[in-house]
Write a structure and sequence with these properties.
Length: 437
């Protein structure tokens, strides 16, 4: 788009890159920035506001000191990033992981902005994390860590400001501690400050499997568009935590075959199909998917080249890259994880005719049911699991249909279509609200 100084509504100012964005070490944030650059040409006059998408609204870095069980004091670094709140309060999970970085949390918060807008939820994007290996801490130490972190970020979270949820290595118990800590600090029970809580504390039925169910719903919709039968379809799943486990079970229940599963312990394969229910029991008892009866081990790098119809990366970001995208045999990839595919890999997959349902749509089932939980907490009126699943499927199917139509209209991938829709919604809100003061 060409602009002139006499056209102030379209002139885009150039600004120096903030100091915390080291151009030599952007990490996951760099992937997000490239995704925004790819969609900007489709934004028309809204590109005037595009710089908004490249700058988190608020970044909080906190020291989290706790007493360990042996009486010593340990310090951990924590983050809470609010990427954008133009459409509503920030929304996004909290992860405990030894490799958490600011770049990662920034990117995850931005992807939450896009995700919430893509499925038209009234939220902005946020994300949090603590750089810690939770396996090294006892349960009392984890509780103290969670409560101290919640107190440190309490300045910026709240039911109408920023609503955390579970993510990697956090769970309903973590959310219960966060909710209780926040409630004690504000002097009232505030169930809506987090989602993903236990049902007995205002959590929602259907939340545990929501992300995996959303993966299945969007995959099934895409398979219908592509003329791929669901019955007997071979599914390969990377990651067998909450998302991968739930997706595998639901695919299995609908007649598909789970032929391969990979987790941190290794990769297993069975052409006859793996029973995900039995595999979950095996994993719980042994701590590994390896040595599951009826399966054979596969080298980790060979996972990507296994013959299957549907591939579900449901682990961490940056898994499908230019180095392995050419090996993938699946016709359909459904991103259960956040940011598992690099832009370079996206290009390779598109050239090879592989359809990819992006994370900002595929794994939005979790935040959709988190939205339901938030609404139920405000009203103190709770729905049945059947009602929740029906509402989830409606939201996911409507979002998929609209993104598929935009993809065909512009001749772009589903990821670009999702960003066109989401960024348009975010920037329209930004433009309408204007700048204050």
């Amino acid at each position: 788009m060409t602009t002139t100084p006499s056209d102030p509504t379209l002139a885009v100012a150039k600004h120096p890159v903030p100091s915390y964005l080291d151009p030599k070490n952007l990490g996951p944030w760099e992937i997000y920035l490239e995704q925004v650059d790819r969609v900007t040409p489709y934004l028309g006059k809204l590109s005037y506001w595009a710089e908004t998408l490249k700058r988190p609204k608020r970044i909080l870095i906190v020291d989290v000191p706790i007493h360990l069980d042996d009486g010593s004091v340990a310090h951990f670094e924590g983050y809470r990033v609010q990427h954008n709140t133009s459409r509503g309060p920030a929304k996004g999970g909290v992860r405990f992981h030894q490799d958490v970085t600011l770049s990662e949390v920034m990117a995850l918060s931005a992807w939450m902005t896009v995700k919430n807008a893509a499925v038209n939820l009234p939220f902005g994007g946020g994300k949090g994390g603590i750089r810690v290996d939770p396996r090294t801490l006892s349960l009392p130490e984890l509780e103290r860590l969670t409560r101290r972190y919640t107190t440190e970020i309490g300045l910026i979270i709240g039911p109408e400001k920023d609503i955390p949820a579970p993510d990697v290595n956090t769970n309903p118990q973590t959310m219960a501690w966060m909710m209780d800590t926040y409630s004690m600090n504000v002097g009232r029970t505030a169930t809506g400050v987090v989602t993903g809580k236990p049902v007995s504390l205002g959590g929602s039925l259907g939340r545990a499997d929501a992300t995996g169910r959303g993966v299945f719903v969007t995959a099934a919709a895409a398979m219908t568009k592509l003329g791929m039968p669901l019955e007997g379809a071979r599914i390969a799943v990377q990651g067998f935590g909450n998302v991968g486990n739930a997706a595998a079970r639901i695919f299995h229940d609908h007649g598909a075959k789970i032929v391969a599963v990979q987790d941190v312990s290794g990769t297993i394969y069975s052409g006859a199909g793996l029973d995900p229910y039995a595999l979950a029991v095996h994993l719980e008892s042994t701590g590994s998917v390896l040595d599951f009866p009826g399966s054979e081990p596969v080298q980790t790098h060979e996972f990507w080249g296994l013959s299957c119809e549907v591939l579900i990366p449901a682990a961490l970001e940056h898994q499908i890259t230019a180095s392995n995208a050419g090996q993938i045999q699946a016709r359909l990839i459904v991103e259960g994880a956040n940011g598992p595919t690099t832009p370079a890999a996206d290009d390779i997959l598109r050239e090879r005719g592989v359809t990819l349902i992006p994370d900002v749509l595929a794994n939005a089932g979790g935040v959709s049911v988190s939205y339901f939980e938030w609404v139920q907490d405000f009203s103190s009126f709770f729905w049945t699991e059947a009602e929740i699943n029906a509402r989830l499927e409606r939201i996911m199917n409507e979002a998929f249909s609209s993104l598929w139509a935009v993809s065909e209209q512009h001749g772009v991938t589903l990821r670009t279509a999702a960003y066109i829709v989401a960024c348009t919604r975010v920037l329209e809100a930004r433009a309408l609200r204007g700048l204050y003061p």
